[in-house]
TrEMBL record:
Organism: Pengzhenrongella frigida
GO cellular component, one term: membrane
Pathway(s): Carotenoid biosynthesis
GO molecular function, one term: lycopene beta cyclase activity
Keywords: Carotenoid biosynthesis, Isomerase, Membrane, Transmembrane, Transmembrane helix
Localization per Swiss-Prot or TrEMBL: Membrane
Organism classification: Bacteria, Bacillati, Actinomycetota, Actinomycetes, Micrococcales
Topology in the lipid bilayer: Multi-pass membrane protein
Keyword check for Amino-acid biosynthesis: no
One GO BP: carotenoid biosynthetic process
InterPro entries: Lycopene_cyclase_dom
Domain of life: Bacteria
Protein known as: Lycopene cyclase domain-containing protein
Major subcellular site: membrane
Length: 112
C-alpha cells in the first residue's frame, strides 16, 4: 500500500486541478480537444527528454518505497508520466488564468 503513495498523491493533485479547471472553465471545460492535444504533446516531449537523459546517464531512478515499481521503460517509473501530466496541466491552467485576467484588465473589467 505504501508503494502507491506517490502515485496516489499525483492523482489527487490532478483531480484538484481538474476541479479548479471545471470551476473556472479554463482548459478541458473550455475546449477539451485542444487541451488533450496540448497536454499529450507536452507529456510526450518531456518523456522523450527523460529517456534521452537516462540514455546519456544524466538521470537515474532512485529506489523509493513510496513508488509502485512499475516502469514505462528501463529506469523510467510510471509515476513520471503522471508527474509530467501534472506539471503540464498546472502550467496550462496558470497560463490560461493569467491570460484571462489580463484580457479582463485590458477590457476595463478588472479582476473577478
Amino acid at each position: 500500500m505504501i508503494g502507491l503513495a506517490y502515485l496516489g498523491a499525483l492523482l489527487v493533485s490532478l483531480g484538484g486541478l481538474a476541479v479548479l479547471d471545471r470551476r473556472f472553465r479554463l482548459a478541458f471545460w473550455a475546449d477539451w480537444r485542444r487541451t488533450a492535444l496540448c497536454l499529450g504533446v507536452g507529456v510526450v516531449v518531456f518523456l522523450a527528454w527523460d529517456v534521452a537523459g537516462l540514455a546519456l546517464g544524466i538521470f537515474a531512478r532512485g529506489e523509493n518505497p513510496y513508488m509502485t515499481g512499475l516502469l514505462l521503460a528501463p529506469e523510467l517509473p510510471i509515476e513520471e508520466a503522471f508527474f509530467l501530466a501534472l506539471l503540464c496541466y498546472n502550467s496550462l491552467l496558470v497560463w490560461l488564468a493569467l491570460d484571462r485576467r489580463a484580457s479582463r484588465k485590458a477590457a476595463g473589467g478588472g479582476p473577478r
